[in-house]
Amino acid sequence: MRRGRRVLAAFFAFFLCLFIGMTAVAEEETDWLTPEEKEAQKKAEKELKRLYKLPIQTNELTGWPEGPGTYGEAAIVMEVGSGAVLYAKNIDGHYYPASITKVLTTLTALENGNLDDKVTFSEDSLSFLEPGDAYIGMEPGNVITLEQALYAVLLASANEVSYAVSESVGKNAGHNYSWFIEKMNEKCQELGGENSHFVNANGLHDDEHYTCARDMALIGRELYKYPEVFKIMQTLQYKIKKSKTTKEHVFQQNHKMFYEDNPNYWEYVIGGKTGYTDQAHNTLVTMVDNGDMQLVCVVLKTEGVNVYSDTRALCDYVYDNFEKVDIAGSETSEDIEEIISQEEKSDYVVLPKGMSFDKLDMEITPDEEVKSEAVLTYTYGGNYVGEARARLSKAYMKKGEVKIISKAGGEERKSPKSKKDEKWNKKMTLAIMTVVLLFLIFAFVKCMLAVKRANKKRKKRERKLSGYRG
């Protein structure tokens, strides 16, 4: 009994010494800090706690798996094939993107140029650089290919190369640098982006240069159509070889999740782009593929290396809690004859594991050209989870309505059949109003003429009476 007490006392003493030692080490680690630095450290820790506790919109969905907090102000995880938003934290708020802008620069360059096109460096592509701006040392008169340039843009985040790419692609298309920037904004809007405005191709700070997490996810999702980009992004080091116009340049990948010897390494990462300015803080776009589900994760205005831990935590959350559900094997509505398989688009939704397909709301929007077909849009609590194209049943065709069906509650709302019908209704209303207005004018004129004739008759009688009395 005494031996047991001695052993217990020894263990207690050991852990007490260990705790005191750890406390002493922690105190020693901050002893060298000035009072101002200690205060700044406390403020930083307080700010991180605040950021982590900011509202997460998807956590407000009943029955939705609870997602982790992030050490940034905005974050999103979007499934690539369906476009489903699986995690949302302030995804439509305006933020400065910094160098993740270059993801859109790359997409715009690929859509309007070819990898073997020439990129020429002008004075304008270098004159804006300031101390601290990322660059690889290109000089006026240098000429490289667009492919070589994109390595510098995506790996080294070279600002002068981003400008040269935009300027050269614009000129090769018969335009200029400004035209390329317009194309960037047009592409973002085409993809459904509604909260972005880009004024340059590199992301260097400008008060009028901003985006949101949702828009950047849409841009990252579109990049999956260009497999050549992922070859570039997965390169750890690249060399632009010496040529007649250009000296040799060697640079490395900045995204830490690609390096096996880095604590943030993750084998599922297949692409991405880093960003940082004093105003934007750290930003990151990451493309992930575990062999079953492809994701785009965006984190904005994040503190330090937390961009990597946040990204990993968010993607792990999705892989642990969500699954693809085939629409064709789940849709039982009498309005749908069959789901039409499409090569370029998914025919599945992404749902929390175990969630019934019947919990979703479905909107049927008939095609304006092919009347027997429609787009089925699925949402859960207003949150988009996927869509499919379908052939409508004969019973539905007789009804001729756009329907929003709440599978969960059995409710059904009806609205005009299509935009075309809405336009027709507006035209008919305008025509009717025009006819009514013409009728009123005609009636008014007729009334005035009648009054005028009556006045003439009255005056004529008065003249006769006046003559008789005289």
List the helices and strands and how they pair.
Layout: H1 2-31, H2 35-52, E1 72-79, E2 85-89, H3 101-112, E3 118-120, H4 124-127, E4 143-145, H5 146-154, H6 159-172, H7 177-190, H8 213-222, H9 227-233, E5 237-240, E6 249-252, E7 269-277, E8 281-289, E9 294-302, H10 306-321, E10 322-326, E11 336-340, E12 348-352, E13 361-366, E14 373-380, E15 383-392, H11 394-399, E16 402-406, E17 412-415, H12 419-469
Antiparallel strand pairs: 1-2, 1-9, 3-4, 5-6, 7-8, 8-9, 10-12, 11-15, 13-14, 13-16, 14-15, 16-17
Helix pairs in contact: 3-5, 3-6, 3-7, 3-8, 5-6, 6-7
Provide key terms for this protein.
470 residues; alpha+beta; Beta-lactamase; 6-stranded antiparallel sheet; 12 helices; 17 strands
Describe this structure in words.
The chain has 470 residues and is of the alpha+beta class. The chain has 4 domains: 2-52; 64-322, DD-peptidase/beta-lactamase superfamily (Beta-lactamase), CATH 3.40.710; 329-417, no CATH class; 426-470. It is 41% helix and 22% strand. The chain contains 12 helices and 17 strands. It has helices at 2-31, 35-52, 101-112, 124-127, 146-154, 159-172, 177-190, 213-222, 227-233, 306-321, 394-399, 419-469; strands at 72-79, 85-89, 118-120, 143-145, 237-240, 249-252, 269-277, 281-289, 294-302, 322-326, 336-340, 348-352, 361-366, 373-380, 383-392, 402-406, 412-415. The strands form 5 sheets. A 6-stranded antiparallel sheet has the order 11-15-14-13-16-17. A 5-stranded antiparallel sheet has the order 2-1-9-8-7, with helices on both faces. Strands 3-4 form a two-stranded antiparallel ribbon. A hairpin with an 8-residue loop joins strand 5 (237-240) and strand 6 (249-252). Helix 3 (101-112) runs antiparallel to helix 5 and helix 3 packs parallel to helix 8. The longest helix has 51 residues, at 419-469. The chain is globular. It starts with a helix and ends with a helix. Mean pLDDT is 86; it is low at 7-29 and 408-421.
